[in-house]
Design goal:
2 copies of one chain form a homodimer. The first copy, chain A, is mainly α and 190 residues long. Chain A has a single domain (51-188), classed as Tetracycline Repressor, domain 2, CATH 1.10.357.10. Chain A is built from 9 helices and no strands. In chain A, helix 7 packs across helix 8 (151-171). The longest helix of chain A is centred in the C-terminal third of the chain and has 27 residues, at 115-141. At the A-B interface, helix 6, helix 7, helix 8 and helix 9 of A face helix 6, helix 7, helix 8 and helix 9 of B. Chain A binds a DNA duplex (30 and 30 nucleotides) through residues 6, 8, 29-31, 39-43, 45-47, 49-51.
DNA sequence: TTGTTTACTTACTTGTAAGTAAGTATCTTT
DNA sequence: AAAGATACTTACTTACAAGTAAGTAAACAA
């Protein structure tokens, strides 16, 4: 990023992501964006010719942010507990802001997305699951975590707790997410 | 149900549910339904004046089916393990049919739903969580299940595993759901 | 200083979603 | 047999979403 990014383009991207996380992909329009930013409809099309270009960019952006976070934690030599904690904090922040996870927002819409968007979403899920698997595995080897079964399965379970945790919190009680978050950490204690 | 239900109405309800579970609420139209059923658009409006009436009926229907299942298991005196197993089987079936859970489909769309629909969705989540909590609690008391923490939190975690498990399976690998399902049961073993 | 690129706006087109009013055929009750 | 009620269809309206073609003003580069 940062190379050649107009302010307007960045604002569209940010607002687009926000709308996907709050209303859902098939419920927002370019008008929602243009009105909010005080620009014309066609200006949004100038940066993102079709809606599928916008979603795809939003997903790619999320992948980049995830990778930056991982890189950052690696260079700072975070231990496994701190890394998991940082990851959970991202979701806790979403919960406070009444947002859900991008995977959980676009997952149900998967069949309505363009092939390229699906590919990026897949890439994103795989990256997260692989990272989390490795984290759990090395944490267990060091005796920092304790759990039964495959690291990959455990990663799927923790991610699904987070993804649907945010969705359920939206429907039921915001504080339900906190219970889930605490229990994830509790369950991993040696 | 069954009192005063025209065949067309039932077909609309069934197809409407199917479309919500495969494409999402904001991605299907009354045309999708009328074309498929070989009727006119206005015929769908005859039974469900507005889209919000259709979704609300779909949710209410799901609540009824859930309650029938619970009643059925109670009269047949299913033990806690069998009841949980039956519940998991519903989700496994959805996974095979490439569908997701109604909660997981409408959860992300929650902010775009009418108040009455939201209320029904809330009712549905609360009913499921309360039932699952009690099931886990009494199963643990009998020594059939073993888990740490509050039954309510554990119920939230299992439900979120199932809800997002289906979503992740859609995006990644269908078999991921099976791993999650098996691990849920494994984790509860005494 | 002329030409090109950037960043838009103006002004459309096309398609579809949601919904409604009024009509009609058939069945059902009195 | 007449009067509802039921289950639709015909034929619209309104609104908005998505996208595009052509124009323009300013910046920037040759």
């Amino acid at each position: 990023m940062s190379i050649k990014m107009s302010l307007t383009r960045e604002k569209i991207l940010e607002l687009g992501e926000d709308l996907i996380l709050t209303k859902g992909y098939n419920a927002f329009s370019y008008q929602d964006i243009s009105k909010e930013l005080g620009i014309k409809n066609a200006a949004v099309h100038y940066y993102f010719p079709a809606k599928e270009n916008l979603v795809t960019s939003v997903v790619k952006n999320n992948i980049l942010r995830f990778e930056e976070m991982v890189d950052n934690m690696n260079t700072r030599m975070f231990d496994e507990i701190s890394q998991l904690d940082a990851f959970l904090k991202i979701y806790a922040k979403s919960n406070r802001e009444e947002k859900i996870c991008l995977l959980g927002s676009l997952g149900p819409d998967f069949n309505t997305l363009a092939e390229i968007t699906r590919k990026e979403l897949q890439k994103m899920s795989v990256k997260i699951i692989n990272w989390l698997s490795k984290l759990l595995n090395s944490g267990r080897k060091k005796g920092l975590f304790s759990f039964e079964g495959e690291p990959n399965t455990r990663a799927l379970m923790i991610l699904s707790n987070l993804v649907a945790g945010l969705q359920l919190a939206r429907m039921m009680d915001k504080s339900d997410f906190k219970s889930i978050q605490s229990q994830i950490l509790e369950d991993l204690k040696p």
